[in-house]
Amino acid sequence: MIFDGTEEFYTDDFMFDVMGIEELPSVLYQYTSADSLEKILASRTLRFSRLDTVNDPEEATALDVALASSSVFVSCWSATESEQLPMWSMYGQNLCGVRIGLPTNMFCGRKEPVIFEKGGALLTVDSWHSITRKSPAMDTNSCAIIGPNKVYYSNDPAYRNRRLVYRHSGTAHFCPYDLGMVKGTHWSYEQEWRFKIAALNFGAQFPDDDYFNKVTLDFAAFPVEPEALFIPLDPSSLDQLSVTLGPKADDAVAKKVKRILAEHAPKATLIPSQIRIR
């Protein structure tokens, strides 16, 4: 597909026709450590990390906004039901951690995601999250989460480095629908799905003035302050939690995970790894 970068590419048509997404997953998986599992369950929250703090330094660049990656928070998942050794190795504490599985509608209120024309899927939660910035830049308050949407893998700069601002008749249209939705093909083995939260509302319109150009878009002088957001999970979603032990998880890890589940998610299912490895 040839794309010239003059309009948003992550649309419902792109998802269906190019990426071949027939439906959104009902269950998502995340590889992590037993300690992280305990933090998630004890707090009943899910961490969204700011994109400029994740492991891919090329994430979410923009042609016209410096440090754009610092304006987006993400929670990264896989929809692949079968265990993946590279994921265990990179994220699952070197095969000694856990893989958690949760329903896609895991957040407070259990709202189902809806696919929109631009930006893919979006859902609302029965809680509010706030993203603060250094004054005088405005804070953002929202109950919306974008996703879950599948990451597109490409080395084409037209996809990787996007324009975010479109100007017309004194109005600036901020359109970061594609921001944080493309990664290089060397990451394609992850087949990642992600939720994201943005510091500036998608599709927002601003007066094309000094405040917008010299404050709102200046993430260096007026940075986003938190490095992470913690979004509440619906307690009922933890009843559907599955936890798979890593292929190299020993008895101590298994005992720890059993204790965590007994304390925080007694209805969760604990599953041994199906991968055999020395």
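Above is the first protein from milestone M3; the second protein from the same milestone is given next.
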Amino acid sequence: MRDWMHVADLARTKTLQGGLVARSASGLPFLLHEGMEVAFVPPRHEAPRRSIVKSVREEGDAYVVAFEGVDDIATAQLLSGCRCLVRRADVPEDARATERDSLAGWEVCDVRTGFVGVVSDVVEKPAQTLLEVVLRDVARQDGGHAILIPMVEAFIASIDEEARRIDMTLPEGLLDL
């Protein structure tokens, strides 16, 4: 999934023809534009999993977006509450840098053991994205050491943007490396 980037959230339906109110993802400018391919997550039964942006209209602090194949309010309602992911290659480099910077300082917690540490950097590798996390060992004079944690869907339990926290289910022994 790291080939894809979360850029917008679909808040609610807006028009009888399937238009949806979209807001940019935390810390990003609004990036959806006509012709852009979008994947909707989480996938919803009976709803399209991907589409192409048909039109975008600014409306106050949000945007009304229409997608190909979403031509009625019933289909739009299925997508309400979904996140819009787009291919990283389709996102300008400055927005990708903003995403990396926006995770610095976030807390990482393991669902079993609790607080793990704080994200100090995001490392992009060809196979996956890694979070550099400074471990919780605050008793050390140097502030603790850092480890790399793969930012993969299998490890992510939840993301709380307001609390700036990533809850993960980390494999046994990963923190001992």
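Note on the second protein: The mean pLDDT is 83.
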